[in-house]
Specification:
23% of the residues lie in helices and 38% in strands. It has 136 residues and is an alpha/beta fold. It has one domain: 2,3-Dihydroxybiphenyl 1,2-Dioxygenase, domain 1 (Roll), CATH 3.10.180. The longest helix has 11 residues. The two termini are 31 Å apart.
């Protein structure tokens, strides 16, 4: 398992984004010396968790990071997209089918991290992917 820990500027805004706009669960929080949350673990589902850390980290945050995040196999990604959009998530890429067989949409969090939220909707051979990518 890989567990991304994202350095965030404002942990309250980040938790609000992941929990209230994307509908993820807040699993736990650890307070810092000042008593305010300094680290929060959020989860879309089992196996998809991110740590949000307000501890000192280099800036700028989120630049050049793309986090491909897959919904559950039985999830309706179109409904989830509509829910995220309806809750005010910043949509960076509208939902669409990709040539490699995934249906995806993109969101950006308050620190500029880009989440490509996907679901595999059809199996595509390596040859088909290579052929399609050379035309893209």
């Amino acid at each position: 398992m890989v567990l991304p820990i994202l350095a965030v500027s404002d942990i309250t805004a980040s938790v609000d984004f992941y929990v209230n706009k994307l509908g993820w669960n807040k699993l736990f929080a650890m307070p810092g010396d000042d008593g305010k949350d300094s680290f929060v673990m959020v989860s879309l589902r089992e196996g998809v968790m991110y740590g949000l850390s307000a501890l000192d980290a280099p800036s700028p945050k989120g630049q050049g990071v793309v986090l491909m995040t897959y919904v559950a196999d039985d999830a309706d990604i179109d409904s989830y997209y509509g829910e995220c959009k309806g809750r005010g998530a910043t949509i960076a890429m509208e939902i669409k089918d990709e040539y490699w067989g995934d249906r995806c949409f993109g969101v950006t969090d308050p620190d500029g991290y880009y989440l490509s939220i996907c679901k595999t909707v059809r199996q595509v051979s390596a040859e088909e992917i290579l052929g399609a990518s050379s035309k893209a």
